[in-house]
Amino acid sequence: MQNERRLSVLRAIVEDYVKTEEPVGSKALVERHGLGVSPATVRNDMAALEEEGYITAPHTSAGRVPTDKGYRLFVDRLTTVKPMTAAEKRAIAGFLEGAVDLDDVVTRSTRLLSQLTRQVAVVQYPTLSRSTVRHVELVALAPTRLLLVLILSTGRVEQRLLEVTEEVSEETLATLRAKINTAVAGAVIADAGEALRTIAQPPDAPADAPQDPLAAAVAEALIEAMNDHRSDERISIGGTSNLARFGDNFDTAVRPLLEALEEHVVLLKLMGEATAGGLVTVRIGAEGPYQELSQTSVVATGYGPGDEALATLGVVGPTRMDYPGSMAAVRAVARYLSRILDEA
Amino acid sequence: MQNERRLSVLRAIVEDYVKTEEPVGSKALVERHGLGVSPATVRNDMAALEEEGYITAPHTSAGRVPTDKGYRLFVDRLTTVKPMTAAEKRAIAGFLEGAVDLDDVVTRSTRLLSQLTRQVAVVQYPTLSRSTVRHVELVALAPTRLLLVLILSTGRVEQRLLEVTEEVSEETLATLRAKINTAVAGAVIADAGEALRTIAQPPDAPADAPQDPLAAAVAEALIEAMNDHRSDERISIGGTSNLARFGDNFDTAVRPLLEALEEHVVLLKLMGEATAGGLVTVRIGAEGPYQELSQTSVVATGYGPGDEALATLGVVGPTRMDYPGSMAAVRAVARYLSRILDEA
DNA sequence: ATTGGCACTCGCACGGAATGAGTGCCAGGC
DNA sequence: GCCTGGCACTCATTCCGTGCGAGTGCCAAT
After folding, report:
1. φ and ψ of B258, to 5 deg
2. In a mutagenesis test of the B interface, which of A141, A161, A251 is the best target, namely the one with the most B β-carbons within 10 Å?
3. How many Å apart are CA B219 and CA A281, to the nearest integer?
4. pLDDT of A101-119, one tens digit each?
5. In the complex, which nucleotide's C1' lies nearest to the CA atom of residue A41?
6. CA nearest B190: which of B240, B226, B152, B136?
7. What φ, ψ does residue A317 adopt, rounded to 5°?
8. Residue A273 confidence (pLDDT) above 80
């Protein structure tokens, strides 16, 4: 790929095809885009592009259509990510402003993203693995029945009921509560587990010292709550009606996608690792591990408070999609979402 | 509608059409079903059925297709709800058995229902309006920061953070906690609000007595939590890939449905009032309030512990669907789900 | 390297004919 | 009175065959 103009031709093809959904021919190209050359010249370039595998012709006498490889080159080198307009920015901010809690924020983001891109939007709830413990509360609901409340930095609250064998006095509970909070408050939940075990059996005590059964049970329950929730990666999906934009091929394209959307595990894998720092990743067609999704692309990025990528968010759509627009929207929503999490 | 055989003909038409998805003619009818008459006779019956509006012919020389009215008659008078087989019952029980918490139960039910019926399944989370308060907990996270925890009979736990203006001592809190629990424990949440307000300003006190600001604030927050959640009717949706069974008409049938599925409010309205006591309601095509959903039917019922209809659950699919099968599956899942809620 | 010209290819839309499933009706039989 | 076989008729669907035109590839000229 040496020639400069050829790249312009490829870009023009992609843009036209995305807009019209129809194979684009040499003549239409020079008309619609202002490349100052004749159709014949463009034809030569197109032949070369086809040779190199960036575009393909569905049949002999039809226009050209970008291949996955063509889209790839397009997003890698040919897009100038257009920033959102001021109006759009205001709309985004306003839309997210009214949210009352974390769930609401995520729901609103999903809806927003699907409306901006007119694609299927997927937003993962902030994972807890990176979040920190804000507070742990122990409450005796009954003499042998404890309620554990775990409050995390993301604003999420987890609770567990714990039955214990022996009655627990209010003082014991208060002491334990204080100990636990001293140990884990502010800790990343991955580390909190270790700290909790230490409480049940302090390292400075002799190794054969009897461990405190209450503390051990509470620690176990808390650790379990943290782990459980770490793997419980909830996601929010919206805009499925935009699947109509896939065109006709329901069985080959839409149905596998609908199935993937229900398999949240698959979906998360598809969205990939959360990438921080405003980097938007794009997976085009068969680049992913799923054969059936060879006609779908994913545009995703990470988000989270303080530029830490706690979770991912993105859109899923046909390979023939508006990549620059989707990337811009995904990036913008991730940014605003991160900002909101910052404040909270 | 006098003739007995005509009804058999209608039933046969519905069954055949549901199976083949194609207009069914007189000849095919007598072959596939054992009605011991000639095609000509059937034709006469069909003419009569068409006259009365139970079936219709898409065009002159094609077979007949049931109308909404035909389906209605079919479900009202012609179906014998076939009970689930023992194997199916075991599968259902096994599938739901493994659930760990309420969310999991609902999720599993959704998946189960969509697999049983091969339709889109919708399960509403148990509404709280009928549920009772099991326990209220007040925790001082900081001197002026309270955590309210509301535990309901459904096993759902709601929490609210409350900032107060004045520092609260542990004793004050304990007293208030005791008072609140005495007042509301076991109460239906609809009544709990009244009881809470009474605490803030006892009726036996002079009307102009200063009310307790702390109690008032807590009461307000709790009431808000209850109300909030009463209207926050979460639902779980599964099996959207079964929408493929709608056939080709994506834009006229599938898309409106996808949109409805995202509008949870619409969806809940569609499912209708929770009907208790094992009654399954069926809404066929345009019988509902939504023009766009004239090609979809809803089979739903209520469920909840102790035969109280706390929430609804059902399937949504094309008017041409297997009503007896769907009704049986919906009823069975609702029954098992209720039983599980009973135990909890 | 670019361009105009030109022959060529094929998918697709259009039109007419053949096909056949299915109907409506009638006259005769149980 | 109801059922049945027969028969003419209808009309959506399928299948060709044709013409059209968008679009290509190549070549010779600039």
Report:
1. -60, -40
2. A141
3. 48
4. 777 889 899 999 999 999 9
5. C2
6. B226
7. -160, -175
8. no
